[in-house]
């Protein structure tokens, strides 16, 4: 029964993600904003158990500002504006009431800014990729025979259109494939514990299986769908595999410190939304940086 609930919840989440990526625009922005708000709520609950509950009036606006920065005019220095406001307004506002500043106010402010960077800034890079200018590549008109119209000319569109959408889809999909491979390989062949103090169930064999599956997914999907050469696809696969595992361990460390199993009980069979996003959060900055630095696609 629990497996059925878990699979059903996963199917619903995956369907929402696929539809949002296809539609893009305001619908994707709204889904991402809702996800960040929920993740901020779960993050606040974890930090509350650690005695450093974030300031809601800093955490939520800053996280959403950083998430949706792709919608702002190009000449805005959005990161500077957001962080400058969080530093100046956040620190001054922390002083009222004075009692709050005395009772861990600085730790709460740091948790607020850190949480916004952890959740809003990272996912914002995925939206930057999705909304990147499309590279439209078409051939010359080709004649096609239509029974009721005869021969007409149509434009044959190359498969690597909408590169940003494909990059994000491959990045998220490969991380999910890698996570699944880690589970099966770890259960079948796992012998050596991997970061046992943080996540006792993870094994080195599972990590290797995750790496292999993630790289293979990139090598098979990225060249035909985005036009990225195979060596770069492999490089991106390695980078995504490493940071996906790292993101999973970061959230596991946070939960272990807070002495809880899940970030919440929001999703039946899965725990909290942050538990599902953990391995995906750090992917955005890495893929975005790789694409920009290398000039891909």
Description of the structure:
The protein is mainly alpha-helical and 297 residues long. The protein has a domain at 161-297. The protein is 68% helix and 3% strand. It has 11 helices and 2 strands. The protein has helices at 2-23, 25-49, 56-67, 78-93, 98-102, 105-130, 163-189, 204-226, 230-258, 273-277, 283-294, and strands at residues 142-146, 150-154. A two-stranded antiparallel sheet has the order 1-2. Helix 7 packs across helix 9. The model is unreliable at 135-159 (pLDDT under 50).
Task: Give a brief rundown of this model.
This protein has helices at residues 2-23, 25-49, 56-67, 78-93, 98-102, 105-130, 163-189, 204-226, 230-258, 273-277, 283-294; strands at residues 142-146, 150-154. The protein is mainly α.
